[in-house]
Amino acid sequence: MPTSQARVPTAEASRYLKQLCRHWSHKFPVETTDASGTVPFGEDRVCTFQAEADALLMRVATPDPAGLTRLENVVADHLMRFAFRENLGDITWSRAA
Fold first, then answer.
1. For 21, which of 3, 32, 34, 52 could close a Cys bridge (C-beta 3.0–4.6 Å)?
2. CB-CB contact of 15 with 85 (8 Å)
C-alpha cells in the first residue's frame, strides 16, 4: 500500500498528536498515547503519529495515489489549524511504495 510521511519540527509534538487523535476519535476508533497515535480513517486508510522531543512524525497510507494526496492534505490542514499559534512552515510529505 502506498505510504507517505512527514516530519514536522515542533516542541509541542505530543500536544498536537493528542489534539488530532481526540478530534478524530468522535468518528473513528482512534488509539493514542502521549507518544503515538493511530487514526483508521477507513478499512484501507490510516494515519499514524509519533511524537519526538523536537518533531511530530506523521505517516499516511491508502491504496491509491489520489487518496494519498487527499489524506496528506486533510492531516496537514488539521495540524496547521491546531498549531495556529506556532509557525510550522510548509509540511513536506515523502512518498514510499
1. 32
2. no
User: How far is Cα 8 from Cα 68, in angstroms, rounded to an integer?
Assistant: 18
Could you give the C-alpha distances from 59 to 36, 63, 85, in angstroms and in order?
11, 14, 23
Which stretches does DSSP call E strand in the chain? 3-9, 31-32, 36-42, 45-51, 55-61, 94-96
The set of residues, in sequence order, having a beta carbon less than 8 Å from that of 41 and lying 6+ positions away, is 24, 28, 47, 62, 71
Q: What is the pLDDT of residues 32-75, one digit of tens each?
A: 998 999 999 988 999 999 999 999 999 999 999 899 999 999 99
State yes or no: pLDDT of 85 exceeds 90.
Answer: no
